[in-house]
Specification:
single chain; alpha+beta; SH3 type barrels; 5-stranded mixed sheet; 21 strands; about 40% helix; about 15% strand
Length: about 625
Amino acid sequence: MTMIDPRKGAKVKFGGVEMKVVTAKGFDSLTLLSSSGEYFDAPLADLEKEAGGSQKANVVVDPIRQSKIPAYMNAFGPLLGRDRLTKKEVEQAGKALGISISSAYAALARFKQSGSTEDLPPPTRPGGRGKSRILPKAEQIIQECLEKTLLTRRNFTPRTFYRKAKRELEKAGFEVAQSTLRGRVARIPEHKWKKARKGYNEARRTDHPIAGNYPEVHKPLDVIQIDHWKADIEILSDDRLTVIGRVWITLAIDIYSRMVFGLHVAIDAPSTTTLGLAMINGMLRKDAVATKYGIEWNNPIYGPIGRLEADNAGEFTGKSIRATADYFHFRLKWRPLGAPQYGGHIERLNATLAERFKELPGATGSTPTERKAFRPEMTAAFTLEDLVRHVWLLVDEYHNEVHTGIGMTPLEKFKSYYFGPNGQKHRLPPIYVDSLEFRRQWYPLETRSLQRYGIRIDHLDYYSENISLLVKNRKKGERVQIRRNPFDVREIYVLHPGLNEWVTVATRHLGFPVASIFELQQARKEALKRKRKPTPEVLAKIIDEQNRHIEEAKKKTKTAQRDAARRSHHGRIRREGGTTSSSGGNRIEIVNMTGVSSSEAPKNTPTPLIKSSTANGDLASILASISDDDIEDIFE
């Protein structure tokens, strides 16, 4: 995955020439030094474009190296990002892993060069050390010794574990290196260690603080809280003729600064996809959002995160987000069941926005009494893209208002960590380059078995030369990992176990229409409703029929208008490149998760009191729909 490292001394390409980073000039540009001694001010937007032009289509995966990352993070985590380290600190980190001081310095050098924790462990040597695995019986002995020594309330030292484990392994005829035993100790999760040695209550006090007593967060992006919220506002169809209902907003907040990290507004109910689009928006720089909506703002928050906190909904606890967290190396933490107070920061942000929404046309209020008073069906004026732009404007206002919890504005709090009166204080976060490789890690993850025809998902078969040998040499019950583009089911991405890389596999059904996962699943339901087998041919025909039907019916019913708006929203995201199939080449256009075309300027035209529609009846029915209050409002 392509990243730009903004730290001093890092190498970046600018204008096709490799240069060194000298310092950051705010959040939008870097000062670079060329080999000839010339200084250049390089806009980050230009560096992103240049880095995005030389991306690889597939990402090579080293599973052995990845398995070592947690242990290396435990040992080196406190040292990362610091400019000066003592020899003793580096030596102690190396001892925790059972590696020499020179290997420890080499690990830090790899991280400094790339800015990615993936590079802390050394690459796996093909066929050499690291390929072997401890026998299951020996592994069982090691785990039993851990449980009897370190993971007890008697608080034995690691030295006791090493002696006992070696003794038990020798009795069973096994020989295991001391570094292996040290690695096992380093990989014990912190919560498990505290719970075993200090008790459940002590571990819970550390990991689950009560509201109002949140442990201090020392820097931006260390902790992000995320949640979904059904907005208290009705929106209009794209042609502004029909009220189509409420939308869902996925919001993420940075606990240190209280800035909004990322968001996504959609008709779709919360899912792995909406979670992913909100996080993509958060991790990428916000220039594309400002350009798309014509907003002049200062919104510098972006970058990799340390921990993601959420409730226990399926999209926050499933295998997709767990795999994504492993890939991007952030921790997941879920609030206890029935304890909403543990997500206090994001809940308060949702409440703040809810209050602002009450002032907008189409507001429903939060109670039946308020809904009756607000009359959202008559006051609605925003389309989906109108509302997205307005939400960003509200976020900008929020960023520039003093927050009582921190005593300053969220924007000031965020900026003060990185820059002070005398210049840069801390290095900026690494910058992700928007690409298929980056976004693919947020796609829904599934596992499927290999069959003689390839891979089958939702009644569609996928096969290409990329997996021909896998199919030919498949074993009974063998399964592979798959990520699916939520907005284009014509191809999938398979993690090839032999090549250790993601490969693109197209559907075998040529001419299958462009469709999202939602549209495909709706077509399957319709096929079963008609008592027809959902074959690819039947599904393709139904998808085409539904598209034509929606075009004809969208001026007649609220449901059809809502489906039309949903499909239009999915289509915009697909067309703008962030979720485009790789068959169109490796060039990935930056897309805002809202999926609104930059050429479509948001419309602020208020909805007329009487909406012109083919569904309107004669004059008598129109007059009957107007209340006395409405007439008074017109003359006022």
